[in-house]
Amino acid sequence: MTEDKKPYVKPTIIKLQSGLMNKFGASPYYARKVRTDIDGISIDKLVEQFGSPLFVFSERQIRNTVREAKEAFTSRYPNVTFGWSYKTNYLDAINAIFHQEGSIAEVVSEMEYDKARRLGIQGKDIIFNGPHKSLQALKKAAEEGAKIHIDHFDEIDDLEKVADELGRDDIQVAIRLNLDAGIYPLWSRFGFNLESGQAMDAVRRIHMGGKLKLIGLHCHIGTFILEPDAYKTETEKLVGFAYQIEEALGIIIEYLDIGGGFPSKNKLKGTYLPPDVGVPPLDTYAEKATEGLYNALKPGDFPQLYLETGRALIEEAGYLITTVVASKRLPDGRKSYVLDAGVNLLFTATWYKYTIETDREVQGIGEPALLNGPLCMNIDVVDEGTLLPPLKRGTRLILSPVGAYNVTQWMQFIEYRPAVVLVAETGEAELIREQEDLSDILRRERLPERLRLA
Ligand SMILES: Cc1ncc(COP(=O)(O)O)c(C=O)c1O
What we know:
The chain is an alpha/beta fold.
């Protein structure tokens, strides 16, 4: 074969598609978007320096988003504090940015609690949520003055034990409520139900025990809530309940925590509208939540308001760079690309259709393709059906937005987890988590002497 003779490629018949049109024009599932850099650093340079796959976070994007969110609320209500929802993304560098921006920590486990403390966050600046808090964790949180949000009656018993152990009768607590804000299915697994009277029973139980002081009410109605009105209902109900408690028992509720749940500009599978059209702006959520407060609060009352926004503050700041390692034609005629990143790294691929960009212009007819990850598992599908031009091995794809919940829910399964990089506002790429190697896998393993191979 001479140098310039093209190799034989088996012909395939492909149905021509111009992209499934909708009323906004071409289908969003047509990937002809090119991204050559993230915040000014070229994709090539990032991969050359840190490898592929690679998670990349934009510091500028994080800071801009959290500032906008704060502005949306503080311009409408005087006492607002954001609690950074650790489980959304708890890398130290990410947490530190949120704390520098004035957020306290919102944690849902002892591990997250310890991580916040190690970073230098004081107990009083930690909201401790979650259905499982060990006695040891409760004791530590009580001693350190954390905001403990009780999830169930057994936890009231546990906290009273802690109070006895510490010889105290003044441990400040809040209770988590679940309530009908018009979002279904209800997140009724957590906290005490408001409408059934269970929440009032919990308040009476705490009051009668005489060891704990109820000072706050908390509620988290769900995640990726597309209905801003739900927050109006939520705040009205929380304020109404606070006054009911005051009237019945003389207890003054000092703070309300309305949880998280605002959506990001990600494309939820099964939704028709593109995110820019279908996802209401954060300002609308602030408008509705504060409208509910003002509807229900008595003049002059401004209880402290906490938010635990996670996803909406970090999603768009995160990218995953991945490399096409092979292309295949499946027996049913579909095109499949094998990537070096799969659902091991992208837990949220089940729910979201990410934006797919290539690191270079690619010519050729678009064809619906499967994007499969590196796992030797049939479930490893990152995307299905996006019209992609013919991608050569080595092409980099940039998937976004992937900043929320992936870098916490990723799995060390089959593959090492990759490096995570932060592009600083100054334009430098900083390593914030190293790529794993075999020592990470072996660190906790113990091989009994008798099983040691010769
Ligand atoms: C108690 C609590 N607070 C805050 C959050 C953060 O929610 P989101 O990321 O939807 O803002 C969650 C997430 O499920 C949660 O369970």
